[in-house]
Amino acid sequence: MKFTRAKRLRGQISIPGDKSISHRSVMFGSIASGTTQICHYLQGADCLSTISCFQKMGIAIENKGDTVLVHGKGMRGLTCPDSALDCGNSGTTMRLISGILAAQDFSVTLTGDASIQRRPMKRVMEPLTLMGAAITSVPDNGCAPLTIRGGALCGIHYTSPVASAQVKSAILLAGLYADGQTRVTEPWVSRDHSEIMLKHFGAHVSREGTTAVISPARELYANKVVVPGDISSAAYFLCAGLMVPNSQILIRDVGINPTRAGILTVIKAMGGQIQLLNQHTASGEPAADILVSSSSLHGTVIQGALIPTLIDELPVIAAMACFAQGDTVIRDAAELKVKESDRIAVMARNLSAMGADVEATNDGMIIHGGKPLHGAVIDSCLDHRIAMTFAVAGLCADGETSILGAECVNISYPGFYEDLGRLIER
Ligand code: S3P
To answer: Does position 380 have pLDDT exceeding 90, yes or no?
Structure first.
């Protein structure tokens, strides 16, 4: 894919369904009793991996495009798959499924692509083992493939060293099957979609400060889930709308759950003009339309409790910071190193290739904004968020930006380039 400078961006866009919420709706629907109807399910490769894993465990799932029907078989209804479950590129699939498999009375191997086989799985292996599951890393390096033999579980109080919704959710899902209450304490609150949806399906979940608490459940009840647009996908249009002069974009039906919406806080801190319209709630998740207009931006500091609320948006925020006056400092974000790629190294390398003044640090980046960018050849490292970030950066740079491995956007946003293209005026 090649991008050159855009004169402006204008129009309206509807964003595909939220990736985190889509995954959870199929997982929880599979272990609920009855049929769950999911509207606006994300048809990205990651969420299709989740569907196929549960189909292999005997769940009938009808994917009709925008709507998905999951014919749940109850908490004990999964059957042993006849081969390994392939999670593809999806960390959410692998880590959350581990929590469910920890309680099944069969043994399963979880595998996936080269990227996921490099990502840390000890963070779920450790708590699930404490609860009573037997989990081994086949290559014995704390990474996938993982073999999980489930069993009777006990409730624990786990203090996680990282703020991770994937770790928290895996433990909460295992906690549904445990013999007593399960508690997960995190350094900062991570996205709470599991808690919201598990309640929607009848589980008893609560939060005390940074601790999530779940009680064992006998049954979950199928429900309708309306998935809002993914704020992590909307982020590219938010940032592009702010960065490209004379732009105005209406982004329709975006999830603005406060545990996900840190990018909105950062945009305001940087002087960006955004307006939330038509605020509403669907399936317990807050959503709104967002009107964004190009703005003159200034640097900011992004750290601490804000980090988990915008972790997936940091690549495009870093690109936007190149167009802000002054310095933007990102810290407390070492988790970026263990995403689909090492996003600190890959962002610093690619932004520098475009002429930006960026320093990679151990737990983030410092971006000295205000230097004009020029086109470059960008290696996406097959990381969807890197590819989309540089498509946006390319709209504000002199010359041509080419993105290698550009098709990886299909992981979370099939149709991204077409949607972006429709807004561009030259
Ligand atoms: C996700 C949680 C985050 C996020 C990922 C999706 C989820 O990961 O980066 O894209 O759906 O729970 P961590 O939990 O590892 O921070």
So the answer is: yes
Q: Which listed residue (312, 379, 383, 419) is catalytic? A: 312
34 token code pair = 């009855």
Q: Is the CB of 311 under 6 A from ligand 1?
A: yes
Instruction: Express each pLDDT in 356-377 by its tens digit.
Output: 999 999 999 999 999 999 999 9
For residues 7 and 70, membership in a common domain is answered with no
CA of residue 170 to ligand 1 center, whole Å? 11
Number of domains in the chain: 2
CA of 374 to the centre of ligand 1 (A): 32
Say what percent of the chain tops pLDDT 70. 100
| 195 lies in the same domain as 332 | no
* Res 66: pLDDT: 86
Which residues span the domain enclosing 269?
A: 2-14+229-425
Q: Over the stretch 59-106, which tens digit does the pLDDT of each residue have?
A: 999 999 989 999 999 999 999 999 999 999 999 999 999 999 999 999
The C-alpha atoms of residue 412 and residue 419 are separated, in whole angstroms, by 14
Residue 272 CB-density burial (10 A; 0-12 exposed, 13-18 middle, 19+ buried): buried
Establish whether residue 267 lines the binding site of ligand 1, counting it when its CB lies within 6 angstroms of any ligand atom.
Answer: no
> How far away, in angstroms, is 282 Cα from ligand 1 center?
21
Confidence of residue 426 (pLDDT cuts 50, 70, 90): confident
**Are 175 and 275 members of one domain?**
no
Would you say residue 118 lies in a domain? yes
Last residue of a domain, one of 226, 258, 291: 226
Question: Does ligand 1 lie within 6 Å of residue 309's CB atom?
Answer: no
**Domain end: 172, 195, 226, which one?**
226
Task: Answer whether residue 392 is part of any domain.
Answer: yes
Q: What is the pLDDT of residues 16-32, one digit of tens each?
A: 999 999 999 999 999 99
Average pLDDT over residues 284-308: 98
From the CA of 169, give the closest atom in ligand 1: 12
Mutate to test the pocket of ligand 1, among 87, 123, 164 (most ligand atoms within 8 A of CB): 164
pTM exceeds 0.90: yes
CA angle 129, 130, 136 (to 5 degrees): 15
Q: What is the DSSP string of 288-349?
A: EEEEEE----B--EE-GGGGGGSGGGHHHHHHHHTTSBEEEEE-S-GGGGGSSS-HHHHHHH
327 carries an active-site annotation = no
We report the CATH number of the domain holding residue 288 as 3.65.10.10
- 158 lies in the same domain as 234: no
Alpha-carbon span 146 to 331, nearest angstrom: 32
Q: Are residues 23 and 77 in the same domain?
A: yes
Determine whether the shortest distance from the Cβ of 165 to ligand 1 is under 6 A.
Answer: yes
Q: Taking a C-beta distance cutoff of 8 angstroms, is the pair 222, 201 a contact?
A: yes
Q: How far is ligand 1, taken at its centre, from the CA of residue 308, in Å?
A: 9
